[in-house]
């Protein structure tokens, strides 16, 4: 885990320099010299964290921040509409904010994602500024907020990251026919990770997964197995520092399912009419389905970097709302479900997009999300087709840039000739 902490603002303009004062306290904690001038930085001895001071964020930083796994932005704001102290995850946005500088963290992340197709996990720590005169001392109110914010940040930096890289760089040799020789190099290789799911002290199963978004994986898996009705049913989640176990506390009434709907367990999934969903979808333009799937493919980052990863995404029909990558097909769908629950079900899933084979279990999992379409670039199985037909899902396979195959409910598609 490589971290970049960026504090920006003019320390000669009183509360506008709140970010620098927070950075100073972090530097002191780690026995580092705080950067004094805009553009200066300092690294920890292990090279895992950089403290950077700037007057303001710049568009040309977009590629630089993608070299880090986690970026924490520190700024001051002058809005009465925001809380005096905010520490929250931030995502890409094109909307201007009420902060004191012309480019926000969200705008920089949006540029990074456009240029590189990826972006780091990012958080924004901001405190309110009350006075912006030409002096280096903070106002009394902002100084108190800086103390509180610094404590929160230091606590965050000492928390276990609960995440490993999903791939490892390994040595290999490439044969080159032109030279009849082997070229030595390194290449990213998928990491397979064993994660034991423990529910109420009882071991339920061991995931073979990628060691990222594992909380979403566990929550989505429990939901897809009908062990929980929503995230509110979860009393506590604990992840071991080495990511070997994830322990979930559920109400005492929770029972371990007799069978799990996963091919890797060797258990045949059971499909009954009670699990069928009744959908009444409006017609969706076929050309728009192709366009959405192309957007989905462009958002793949791990597969493009190391190859071999499965990817799944869900869309509300307007945009790609969530995307997950993992070494396992089922893990991707479980992570999507968990991510959707944990974000508060803020949108209605309409389309499930996959990169791998569509099996009957994958269709079964889609019923919990309530999607109207399942789209993949490869083939469905016959049982997947049968279940999708009964459940009222439009199942699409072999999605390409200008064509696809429809296995069930083609009447859901809007066609120019219709």
Give a description of the structure.
38% of the residues are buried. This protein folds into 3 domains: 3-158, Rossmann fold (3-Layer(aba) Sandwich); 193-267, Ubiquitin-like (UB roll), CATH 3.10.20; 284-414, Cytidine Deaminase, domain 2 (3-Layer(aba) Sandwich). 26% of the residues lie in helices and 27% in strands. Strands 2-3-1-4-6-5 form a 6-stranded mixed sheet, covered by helices on one side. A 6-stranded mixed sheet has the order 15-14-16-17-18-19, sandwiched between helices. A 4-stranded mixed sheet has the order 10-9-12-11, with helices on one face. With 418 residues, it is of the alpha/beta class. Helix 1 packs across helix 4, helix 5 crosses helix 8 (329-342) and helix 9 packs parallel to helix 10. Residues 263-281 have low confidence and may be disordered. It has helices at 18-29, 62-65, 105-116, 140-158, 214-224, 286-298, 302-306, 329-342, 360-369, 382-391, and strands at 3-8, 41-43, 49-54, 70-77, 85-89, 121-128, 167-176, 181-190, 193-199, 202-209, 236-239, 245-249, 284-285, 310-315, 320-326, 351-354, 373-376, 394-397, 405-406, 413-414.
């Amino acid at each position: 885990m490589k971290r970049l902490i960026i504090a920006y603002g003019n320390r000669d303009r009183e509360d506008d320099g709140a970010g620098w004062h927070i950075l100073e306290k972090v530097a002191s904690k780690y026995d580092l010299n705080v950067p004094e001038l805009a553009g200066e930085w300092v690294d920890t001895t292990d090279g895992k964290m950089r403290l950077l001071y700037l007057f303001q964020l710049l568009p040309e930083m977009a590629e630089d921040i993608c070299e880090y796994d986690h970026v924490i932005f520190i700024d001051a704001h002058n809005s009465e509409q925001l809380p005096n102290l905010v520490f929250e995850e931030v995502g890409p946005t094109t909307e201007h904010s009420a902060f004191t500088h012309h480019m926000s963290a969200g705008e920089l992340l949006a540029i990074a994602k456009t240029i590189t197709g990826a972006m780091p996990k990012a958080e924004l720590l901001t405190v309110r500024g009350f006075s912006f005169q030409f002096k280096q001392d903070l106002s009394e109110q902002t100084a108190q907020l800086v103390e509180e914010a610094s404590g929160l940040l230091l606590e965050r930096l000492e928390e276990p990251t609960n995440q490993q890289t999903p791939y490892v760089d390994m040595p290999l040799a490439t044969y080159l026919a032109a030279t009849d020789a082997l070229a030595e190099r390194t290449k990213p290789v998928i990491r397979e990770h064993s994660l034991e799911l423990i529910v109420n002290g009882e071991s339920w199963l061991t995931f073979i997964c990628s060691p990222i978004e594992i909380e979403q994986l566990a929550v989505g898996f429990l939901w897809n197995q009908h062990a929980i009705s929503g995230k509110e049913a979860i009393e506590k989640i604990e992840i071991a520092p080495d990511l070997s176990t994830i322990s979930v506390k559920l109400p005492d009434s929770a029972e371990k399912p007799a069978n799990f709907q996963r091919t890797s367990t060797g258990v045949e999934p059971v499909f009954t009419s009670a699990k069928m969903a009744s959908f009444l979808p409006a017609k969706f333009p076929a050309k728009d389905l192709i366009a959405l799937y192309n957007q989905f493919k462009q958002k793949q980052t791990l597969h493009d970097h190391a190859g071999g990863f499965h990817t799944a995404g869900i869309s509300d029909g307007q945009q790609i709302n969530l995307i997950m990558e993992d070494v396992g097909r089922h893990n991707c769908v479980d992570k999507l479900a968990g991510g959707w629950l944990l974000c508060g079900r803020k949108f209605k899933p309409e389309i499930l997009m996959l990169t791998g084979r569509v099996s009957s279990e994958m269709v079964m999992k889609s019923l919990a999300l309530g999607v109207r379409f399942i789209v993949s670039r490869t083939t469905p199985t016959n049982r997947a087709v049968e279940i999708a037909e009964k459940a009222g899902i439009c199942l699409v396979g072999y999605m390409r840039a200008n064509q696809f195959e429809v296995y069930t409910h083609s009447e859901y598609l809007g066609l120019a000739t219709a």
